[in-house]
């Protein structure tokens, strides 16, 4: 192998993984997972009208998330022959079925009328970003990265509200548990492993796109939390 070949081989073998990106962009990751809204749930000072706003808006988001996850599933089936990829995404789809039912139940508990919710602008922006990722032009590695980032932010944020020293109000624990539970944590780890595997094999160009999408998801998550606590 000549030097040039060696260099190109070593650059394609360069260790890239999502954990490295979390470290590299720690302040943005922290802004998305330790947002004042999440801190207010964790310390029990949460404004209930903010929580209700978040609940209604997130229901709209999850409805838009379903076709996005379906598009990831289609790409998994078309672009890889590894059945683990299909299975992890299919597991995510199944969980969304439960999640929509849960939103309806939770909304009635909090007196939120889901049919009357108008999406706020941060939500509209996030949903149109999801739509843009559904295009067949967007590589599987890139959408898998986005899928992981979207789920990981919720997992990390809500698990934080369930830590031993958290003072999360009893009536919000079920919500936190929905995303903060260990099974969902394990599933996110599996998704992360799948995404890492594809990132390792990807071209530099696709890795760059995946990193940009990761950052954009974090920004949109921060805006989504911001939207939930306007006016307090
Ligand atoms: C805004 C937002 N991000 C991530 C998730 C996780 O599913 C969600 N429900 N809502």
Automatic annotation (TrEMBL):
CDD domains associated with the record: TenA_E_At3g16990-like
Catalytic activity line of the entry: N-formyl-4-amino-5-aminomethyl-2-methylpyrimidine + H2O = 4-amino-5-aminomethyl-2-methylpyrimidine + formate; 4-amino-5-aminomethyl-2-methylpyrimidine + H2O = 4-amino-5-hydroxymethyl-2-methylpyrimidine + NH4(+)
Q: Name one GO biological process term.
A: thiamine biosynthetic process
Pathway connected to this protein = Cofactor biosynthesis; thiamine diphosphate biosynthesis
Judged by the first EC level, this protein's enzyme class is hydrolase
Q: Which GO terms describe its cellular component?
A: cytosol
Tell me which Pfam families the record gives: TENA_THI-4
| The entry's keywords | Disulfide bond, Hydrolase, Thiamine biosynthesis
Active-site residues from the entry: 221 (proton donor)
Molecular function terms from GO: thiaminase activity
Lineage: superkingdom: Eukaryota
Task: List each copy of the Thiaminase-2/PQQC domain by range.
Answer: 23-229
Question: For this protein, what is the EC number?
Answer: 3.5.99.2
Locate the residues binding substrate: 58, 99, 151
Q: Which family does it belong to?
A: Belongs to the thiaminase-2 family.
Record protein name field: aminopyrimidine aminohydrolase
